[in-house]
Design goal:
Blueprint lengths: L10 E5 L8 H14 L4 E5 L5 H4 L11 H5 L5 H4 L1 E2 L5 E4 L8 H4 L9 H7 L7 E5 L6 H9 L2 E7 L4 H18 L5 E10 L3 H14 L3 E7 L2 H8 L4 H4 L4 H19 L24 H22 L9 H7 L21
Parallel strand pairs: 1-5, 1-6, 2-4, 2-5, 6-7, 7-8
Antiparallel strand pairs: 3-4
Helix pairs in contact: 1-12, 6-7
Bound molecules: adenosine-5'-triphosphate and magnesium ion (MG).
Magnesium ion binds next to helix 1.
Length: about 350
């Protein structure tokens, strides 16, 4: 890098909704994996003390350091993230200590800016930092929204979805006006879509009201999501061909196309779609893109199956290895450091 070159900064994308249980964690995890499969270097940061992100990654042991330690400046950025077995993907996990972070912020001079300021000084080759937020509007999600350049809002199409979305947009508007004028609403992503009448009606209402800000791709409700979670594997790897996953890969294709054509979006969230930059790169050839991503996801699945063939889907990898006496129940199924085993 020459002196005139500025270091590449990763784009921080918050996955946020004030409403609980709408698919934030499922979305954050699966788009992180799909982006990694698309060749982007991704860091997935868990800012929810429930810690659900890590538990869906192949039974990784309870992490000792994570987002909390990074926020309180106890560790450097490089000590915070953990390489996943899948190429291009790292996780900054949530540890139990994160549950006390909201109280600890009281001693910070500028608590809303803690994450933004910490990230400003890090050096990383990552293209994206995807941040999974807890529900409600505490200081942790505020930190995510202040540090992020864009936010993705999952919307579960059920009776209170519209109210939840309006509350979420109101909060985001406040953040834009007072704390982060550069924050753009990337998209609303409709999740857990089923054939039920109420779901379809809510989806139609939200599309009518918010138009092109709602991504064309929808995430289907699929039993494989729970099955994947129960087996500690991201859906994207558990069953690359299931309907919900096809949705997440389609979403990532749309996301990347929108990223390429996005220019500063007006702070007014009710405005139309992000403007297209004249001469912006054309969207990728979608068939070629899908072929590349699905091929990599299937390769990852096969590699995991080989770890403990033949019944990968019967049980989680670590617990099966433990049962077979290969691994103690608490031992990590994956190498602690990247160097010991190349990512698949
Ligand atoms: N497409 C889907 N099909 C079926 N179940 C799903 C789907 N997406 C998410 N779920 C399930 O819905 C529940 C809530 O999902 P998730 O944990 O992603 O939501 P969340 O918004 O992160 O919740 P919280 O607000 O508690 O953090 C989980 O049990 C998850 O497995
Ligand atoms: Mg969650």
């Amino acid at each position: 890098m020459t002196e005139t070159e500025t270091p590449r900064r990763p784009r921080a994308i918050a996955v946020f909704s004030q409403k609980g249980g709408v698919g934030k964690t499922t979305t954050a995890s699966n788009i992180a994996v799909a982006l990694a499969a698309a060749g982007k270097e991704v860091i997935l940061m868990d800012l929810d003390s429930q810690g659900n992100v890590m538990s869906s990654f192949c039974g990784q042991p309870a992490p000792l350091v994570g987002a909390y330690d990074f926020l309180v400046e106890a560790v450097s950025f490089a000590e915070t993230w953990k390489r996943m077995p899948f190429a291009n993907l790292s996780i900054i996990p949530a540890t139990k200590a994160l549950a006390g972070m909201e109280l600890e912020f009281a001693s910070f001079e500028k608590p809303q800016f803690a994450l933004r300021d910490r990230l400003a000084s890090v050096s990383t080759e990552a293209d994206y930092i995807i941040i999974d937020c807890p529900p409600a509007l505490g200081l942790l999600p505020v930190n995510a929204l202040v540090a992020a350049s864009s936010v993705i809002i999952p919307v579960q199409c059920e009776p209170f979805a519209h109210d939840g979305l309006i509350n979420t947009l109101y909060s985001i508007n406040k953040i834009q006006s007072n704390l982060n004028p550069g924050l753009t609403v990337h998209s609303f992503l409709l999740t857990m879509i089923s054939g039920e009448d109420i779901t379809r009606k809510m989806a139609a209402i939200i599309r009518r009201e918010f138009g092109p800000r709602v991504y064309a791709t929808e995430i289907s409700r699929a039993p494989e999501v729970a099955a994947a979670a129960a087996r500690d594997v991201p859906l994207t790897v558990f069953d690359p061909d299931c309907l919900a996953l096809i949705g997440y890969v389609g979403f990532v294709a749309e996301f990347l196309a929108r990223e390429r054509s996005m220019k500063d979006v007006p702070a007014d969230m009710s405005a139309g779609a992000p403007e297209q930059v004249a001469g912006a790169a054309a969207p990728p050839d979608i068939l070629e893109f899908n072929e590349m991503v699905f091929a990599r996801l299937r390769k990852w699945k096969q590699a995991l199956e080989k770890q403990d063939a033949p019944s990968f889907i019967e049980d989680s990898v670590p617990s099966r290895l433990a049962k077979a006496g290969v691994l103690s129940a608490s031992a990590p199924p994956w190498p602690e450091t990247e160097g010991e085993q190349a990512p698949i």
